[in-house]
Amino acid sequence: MESIRESDGESLGEMESSTSDPDSEFEAQFESGRQRKRPVPVPVSVPKQPLKKLRRRASVTPISSPSPSQGTSEQASLPGPVRIWKKAPAIRAEDIYAAIRSGKSATVTIVDEWIDSYKQDREAGLLVFVNFITQCCGCKGVVTREMFDKMQHAEIINVLTKDFSEESVHYPLSSLGPQWKRFRTGLCELMQVLVFSCQNSLLYDDYLFSSLLDLLTGLSDSQVRAFRHTSTLLAMKMISAVVQVGVSVGTQLQTAQRRFDAESSKSPQDQATQRLEELQAAIKELLEHREDVRSLINAAMRGVFVHRYRDCVPDIRAVCIQELGLWLRTDPESFLKDGYLKYLGWTLFDKQSVVRLQCVRALQALYQERDFLGRLEFFTNRFKERMLTMVFDKEPDVAAEAVNLLLLIQQFSEEGLQEEECAHVYTLVFAAHRGLAAAAGCFLYHKLKTLVVREEQAKAMSPREAFFNVLITFFLQSECHDHGAYLVDSLWTVAGLELRDWETMTSLLLQDCEHRQGLSNQEEGALLELLLCTVRRAAQAIPPVGRVQGKRMLSMKDKKIQIQDKRRLSSHFMPLMPQLLAKYSADVDHVSRLLQIPLYFDLETYSSAKKLEKYLDLLLIQLCSVVEKHTDSSVLEACACLASALCSDAYTFSARADRAFSQLLDLLAECFNSYFDEVLQGTADGEDVYSASMALKRIAAFSSARDLKSCELFEPCMQLLKSGVESPIFEKELMVPALKYVSFQLMWDKVRVLSSTPTEAEVLRLRQAVRSFCSVSQRCLSSGQAEIRDQAFDLLCDLLLVYSARSVRSQPALQALALPPAGPLRSEMAAYLIDFIFTDDPQDVPPDADEEQEKKMMAALQNKRNMLAGYCKLVIYGVLDLSAATDVFKNYFKFYRDFGDIIKETLRRSRQISTVQSAKTVCLCLQQLFSEVVSTGSSEEELGRIRDLAKKLSLSFGIDLLRIRKALVCLHTDGIRFALRGHEEVPGQPPNLNFLEVLSEFSFKLIHEDRTQLVAFLKAECPRAAPCWPPVRMYQRSLEGRASARPREEESQEEGEVEGEELTAYRRDSLRSHSTSSVAKRRRTSQQGTRTHARTPPTLETHTLHPSLLDLLSSPQRGAGLDSSSIHSNLPTPPFSSTVVAGIDGTRPTSKEEEEEEEEEEGVRSTPLSEEEFSSSRPWMRKVRSKVRRPSSFSHPSPGPRESPPDLEAHLTLLSLIEEDQSEEEPQIEEFDSSDPDSSYTLPSNRQTSSNVLDDLFD
Q1: Do the beta carbons of residue 1219 and residue 1181 sit within 8 Å?
Q2: How many CB atoms neighbour CB 667 within 10 A?
Q3: SS3 assignment, position 1258
Q4: Cβ–Cβ < 8 Å for 95, 51
Q5: Which residues are registered as beta bridge partners of 8?
Q6: Which of 98, 474, 626, 1028 has its CA at a distance of 20 to 30 angstroms from the CA of residue 948?
């Protein structure tokens, strides 16, 4: 018993001595906790605690504790339970990995536990850390003690490579998700904490960190990406911590040297010899530490960095550049030199955006320090041109960071940037990417501030006035006058206070020009545009169209700011709006902008205070005055929108506004009625006709915003329209407003009918009115005046949609109002598309065109886009059959630039209705084009264009082959029947046989089973002589070639050339034999509504299917049949394209189906890439010269399963892990080509953006 107690005392003494280690901060806490818990009895068996709790790190652990009376060593001899101690388990690699992966354990605690185990046995402790690194790489192998003692690091790495798991290509650092993101952060923190914990002792023992760095260097040179990536990250993080330790050692060395010099400078009598010896010894020790630190850094630079900063993996290169930037900033005395800065300069040309991004961010941190600018002067001069070109980088994030870097250079460097260099950045404020535009806006704002100071001193004005003068000058010089919203949004973050200074802006607009120099007319227009954009941005609190994806949810802070801004602008502009309208009422552009500002008011403010009511009356007076003065459509539409807002029932003052506008409209109606009889009889002079037309134009503008049934102008306008189409004596000034008024009044009648219970007579009367208007509009489509026929087509599309069968489906009493378009009307509208929308007129603006000509061409194109979208709506929402879309689809390739987005959206929506019917429509449009080519005797070039169209249409089907399987089979069967039509009647080859070449463009979308069945179907349909016809052989090869794994290798090149010549000759003879006299571009319809061609075009029909395809095609799919009846979709009713009050909802979310189409158009095919395509898609592989390797035993044909060598599987596993680049030399970094067309940024177009059109017209 005595010996046991003595051993207990020795164990306690060892435990107390172990807690005195200064390298761990955990010991004091553990000792105090242990002493506090000593009186508490402990159970006999203690389970192992998890790592996230503080584990006892003493060399022994008590099994049972003494009673509370046994508190001193003198009481140990008293009777009581015997205390038995056992060895504490050492920390394992699995424990460290689990703790880092979970992210719930303190990193300092983990490091302290491992350091304690390392101090007890450094080989065993280092082996634990080596296995931890192995697990972090995703390797299942384990380094045993025997391997660690007898093998070199290179041999250990080879063994681990063979044991690497190939279940997945992912490893911890490449895995996605928040858990693995925390793992990466914890791993980096672990390495840094380890260095900092060992900076006073183990960092300089010439064993731990040198061994770790040796292992990491070997792993970083491995051919396995997981090893290379993980080891490079750990090595770089370790060196980053070592650099910080080196800076600390340098600081301590300077302090010790300064103290030593101060002590040495004293007289011999005052010197402390012992103090000098201590300082000298400390200096010597610090010098040794500094050399050790430098040796570690140099070894890492030579062994890891110089090889891995140009690794083929972008993430590895990014890690190296990121840590290099940290070294340059942490220890500029050692690293901020040209020898290290060159790596950043070279990496600016990297082909991967993630590397360029890290490089630019590293440079930003350097240029923020004014003390570094002198050392960066040579680097700036050398790589300034590259940094200027990076603002047009293909990745917007990199370009935005490059702009921020140039801003730092402009602010802090002495030379800065020249004006022509700054011009590279100015235009980016109009970029579509909001981050890039905001960075450019910040750059522009700081540049404007320097000019404001000069302007303020030169013209003796306030800072805000000088700011707006400079901003107006820039806006006018930028020549992007239609994009003020983008400029305001770019400056909104950095110059929000200045842009919200509406007081200064209105004072500039209302200032008296007699006392001081005012703004010119052009400058006033620019300021009004900026004023409108700032008001809209503050009231809506969202970026303009094109700069936000999807719907943006405002935070509570943004909503609060929005409410405050809306109240402030309302209280400021309400008293001043009548003055502004009175001053600028004569200018069309100025007043149209001013009339949009009240739409963003908090209109309820008018009724909150009596003093504001007089301003409402003044506003109504000015508004009526503007209507009387102007006849421009934009001004009248703006007045109608504002009148609709003021007359809303939500406000208490609506009766006052309604009374004012009713009086105005009554005067206009009286004016029109006074001239109507003379105009209708044709006896009115020119002045009377003008007065009547202007009055009707004003009334028509207001009819889009409010119901004007009280004016009782429907019958007069219908008489005017009927007289105009029978004898074209009326000009467009009368016909166009009459069409607008009648169509809008019919829409208001529909709204009135739906909200009430009409009688049968009223329903029939309304039905007859709609029929009469459709008949008049149909005749207007043939008018010789473009404005009349365009307006008639646009209004017809909207009215047919309003009175479609779907609109009254839920109300049986109103079924009589369902008016589907008649056959002649459908044919006339289709002919209008061909004659006036899909025209061959050049849409490109000529280089020598002036601004007015450019605006006219863009307006004409926008008008065509609106009309095409209106027609496509009729197809999408079931008003017209899907077969009516053939005239649209056949122009997909030819007019892709102008109408591609609209046609693509129509294709997507048609597939939502019925994939089978959509595919049949695609096949039908190709058949019609082919029939026209054959009938007109065109050249083979026309056939090539049809094939290009087929290729473009095939890409629109997406990449989900199973979903489109049935549709593609229907397309191929219809195409085969069309190609073989007439082979029984005409001897020899059928006239449409070349259509099989067009059909072959869709073969790559077929799956294997369908290809086999279509080959059988083709053989059954073809006559006996068909297999020798070249088009049949070509189409059959497109099916069989895709079906087989590889093309036939026995077919020689000579046979292919002969067959190609035979096919070309056949095409020429076939086209020549069917050539006839040229036909007109379109044929007018007959009375029955059918269009005539030289050859009857094919139609969607139901045919008897081949037995092998009957089961596949008979299955229902989304309720779609195989007949040609009209398909009614379940899509919501869209807004009107011609209604003035229709708004814009924002951007349209991209559907999964549309993403598949875009991915398909980029070249993603269902077939695997060939070896050459696979290599060419990897630019890094092209730059690496493959090392010649000696043939190994597994490079020959493998033996049978029983004869395979035992190590064959391990070698094959090794091959699957080794990457493609097997070169001794590192791949060279290719220079980034800034002239790449994809890298340029397109400014917002004058035409309506794609998302804007599709949102407004389709959704």
Answers
A1: no
A2: 14
A3: coil
A4: yes
A5: none
A6: 1028
Q: Hey, what amino acid is at 182?
A: R
Q: What are phi and psi of 955, to 5 degrees?
A: -70, -20
Provide the CB-side half-sphere exposure for 587 (13 A, CA). Answer: 15
> What pLDDT digit, counting tens, does each position of 113-151 carry?
999 999 988 889 999 999 999 989 888 888 888 888 888
> φ and ψ at 1218, to 5 degrees?
-75, 135
Q: What is the pTM of this model?
A: 0.73
**Contact of 1035 with 984, CB cutoff 8 Å:** no
Which residue, 1040, 1067, 1050, 1037, is CA-closest to 946?
1067
The conformational region for residue 1074 under phi > 0 = left, psi -120 to 50 = alpha, else beta, is: alpha
pLDDT of residue 513: 55
DSSP 44-100: SS-PPPPTTS----SSEEESS---TT--SSGGGGSS-PPP-EEEPPPP-HHHHHHHH
Residue 1081: φ, ψ to 5°: -65, -35
- Please report the sign of the dihedral spanned by the C-alpha atoms of residue 306, residue 310, residue 313, residue 314: positive
Alpha-carbon gap, residue 168 to 176, rounded angstroms:
13
* pLDDT tier, 517 (very low <50, low <70, confident <90, very high otherwise): low
User: Percent of the chain, pLDDT > 90?
Assistant: 39
Tens of pLDDT, residue by residue over 804-836, are 888 888 787 788 888 889 889 999 999 999 999
- Return the ∠ at Cα 139 (arms to 133 and 143), rounded to 5°: 65
Q: What is the 3-state secondary structure (H, E, C) of 1046-1075?
A: CCCCCCCHHHHHHHHHHHHHHHHHHHHHCC
- Helices (runs of H) and strands (runs of E) counted in the chain: 52, 2
Longest Cα separation, the chain: 138
987 to each of 250, 669, 981, 1025, how far by Cα in Å? Answer: 99, 72, 12, 11
Is-contact 108 25, C-beta < 8 A?
yes
The three-class DSSP label of residue 756 is coil
Does 427 score more than 70 pLDDT? yes
Torsional sign, CA 478, 484, 485, 489:
positive
Cα Rg of the chain, angstroms: 41
3-class SS at 32?
Answer: helix
pLDDT band at 1025 (very low <50, low <70, confident <90, very high): low
Whether the Cβ atoms of residue 442 and residue 496 lie closer than 8 Å to each other: no
- 411 has pLDDT over 50: yes
Distances 232 to 207, 299, 300, 941, 1227 between C-alpha atoms, Å: 20, 13, 10, 57, 17
Express each pLDDT in 892-929 by its tens digit. 999 999 999 999 999 999 988 989 999 999 999 999 98
d(CA 313, CA 1180): 9
State the sign of the Cα–Cα–Cα–Cα dihedral 64, 69, 70, 76.
negative
CA distance 141 to 201: 32
C-alpha–C-alpha distance, residues 1101 and 542, integer Å: 50
Distance from C-alpha of 155 to C-alpha of 48, rounded to nearest angstrom: 36
Which amino acid appears at position 515 of this protein? H
Tell me the DSSP string of 950-995: HHHHHHTT-S-TTTTHHHHHHHHHHHHHHHTTTTTTSSSS-TTTTH
Distance CA 1035, CA 1140 (A): 52
CA 339 to chain centre: 39
Cα separation of 824 and 830, whole Å?
10
* Beta-sheet pairing, 60-62 with 85-87: antiparallel
- Find tokens 């009376």 and name the residue: 69
DSSP structure class, residue 1087:
T
DSSP string over 1139-1156:
-TT-----PPPPPHHHHH
**CA dist., res. 1216 & res. 964, Å (int):** 35
